[in-house]
Design goal:
Helix content is about 75%, strand content about 0%. It contains 17 helices and no strands.
Length: about 425
């Protein structure tokens, strides 16, 4: 008899590839608008503070919806939740592209955020249920899809944004429509009904001391994350103009493609090695410190194009490790159901991402272009402090993982933003 084929991440049902494609496109939406923020400001006569609200409305609604996404999916099922999320993204991405004012785009990005919350909160469960080769293969595929989305989003946004700022929105709507059609046709609804989740399960999870510590840590970390992501296009464009350089959406897209590629590589390949050898908490402390140094360098060199570009890409390396390590820590620190723990954690940390774009413009106008980065440094210092004060609830996490399999089982939804 021929020997059975070894499990391979590449040998998957077509439904898995459809979900993975949708995951990649969904996370393109985070970095997609980054290269076109200055173009939207110019095209719609909007201030940087106004256009950065495209991130705030998106992330704020995503955060709130995350607390209740488990309740929704447990009532209507995984497939229907995925379809509803994708349909909302298609509709609101298209409406954002057809908008005539920045206020309209901000509103439609909120609807987009609702769709994204419904989709990403159930995507991993759908991949695990449909994949062959075990949950570890599914997790790696999920991580790879999200990493590709984070990297390609700015590149696609820059390429389509060269013609018009509307292009990236219509492009996302078209890609998501393809993903929606594929999932409708290829993904079968599971025969077993999901276990019902109470309406308040997401909020009640914050009573857990370990989850509360990690969620607060991630709240301030994501403030720093989105300071870098949402604010940087403006000082970078200003520094390029001062140096006599032509730096438009395409060039910004290339810079943030480098950032996203660095984030994807370390998230999938480097973070598991570091956490396995050093332990989760030592990795978190060191990466927070390195990211704080990077933001301080950006604050000091805010008028230098080479410094800003270099640090943005290098920061992607740290961010990739932090995203994966933080999510692993959440999953290992509590005995809560993974879906509830990850959704609650993601909901709190997305709030930090929503706040940063809302205040960075005003901070820059008041204290100078480098000031938002100093606020990011302060936020990371708070993250380190919160983590240190809560270490008693996390003391069992200081040990390294013994195997790659141990940590691969712990990565779940929400660790890419």
């Amino acid at each position: 008899m021929p020997e059975p084929k070894k499990p391979s991440i590449l040998r998957q049902p077509t439904a898995v590839w459809a979900i993975a494609f949708a995951c990649a496109v969904s996370f393109m939406g985070i970095g997609l608008v980054d290269p076109i923020l200055p173009a939207i400001s110019e095209g719609l006569n909007a201030s940087p503070s106004q256009t950065m609200l495209l991130f705030t409305s998106y992330l704020l609604i995503t955060a709130v919806a995350m607390f209740f996404s488990g309740f929704i999916s447990s009532r209507v099922g995984v497939k229907r939740t995925l379809i509803a999320g994708l349909a909302l993204i298609v509709i609101f991405a298209g409406l954002a592209g057809a908008s005539d004012t920045v206020g309209q785009i901000i509103g439609f990005r909120a609807g987009w955020g609702l769709g994204n919350a419904l989709f990403i909160s159930t995507a991993l469960a759908a991949i695990v249920g449909a994949a062959s080769g075990g949950s570890r293969q599914a997790v790696i595929l999920y991580e790879a899809a999200l990493g590709i989305g984070m990297a390609v989003g700015p590149l696609l946004g820059g390429a389509l944004g060269e013609a018009s700022w509307r292009g990236p929105f219509f492009g996302t709507a078209a890609l998501m429509a393809i993903a929606l059609a594929a999932i409708l046709v290829l993904l079968k609804a599971p025969s077993a009904k999901p276990e019902p989740v109470p309406f308040t399960a997401g909020l009640s999870a914050l009573r857990n001391p370990a989850l509360r510590t990690l969620a607060a840590t991630a709240l301030f970390y994501n403030y720093a994350f989105f300071t870098l992501l949402a604010y940087t296009p403006y000082p970078l464009e200003a520094a390029a103009a001062k140096a006599g350089m032509d730096f438009g959406a395409h060039e910004l897209g290339l810079v943030f493609f480098g950032w996203g590629a660095a984030l994807a590589v370390t998230s999938v390949f480097v973070a598991p090695i570091l956490t396995r050898r050093l332990g989760l908490l030592p990795v978190l402390y060191s990466m927070f410190g390195l990211l704080a140094v990077g933001l301080a360098v950006m604050a000091i060199g805010v008028e230098s194009v080479p410094i800003l570009i270099t640090v943005v890409i290098i920061a992607g390396l740290f961010l990739g490790v932090l995203n994966t390590a933080l999510t692993e820590t959440v999953m290992e620190a509590t005995d809560l159901p993974r879906g509830v723990a990850s959704s609650t954690y993601s909901g709190v940390r997305f709030l930090g991402g929503a706040i940063a774009p809302a205040v960075s413009g005003a901070i820059a106008e008041t204290w100078g272009d480098g000031a938002p980065y100093w606020f990011g440094v302060a936020a990371l210092a708070i993250s380190i402090t919160v983590l240190a004060f809560g270490r008693q609830t996390l003391s069992h996490l200081t040990r390294p993982h013994n195997t790659a399999e141990a940590e691969a089982e712990l990565i779940t939804v929400g660790d890419e933003t």
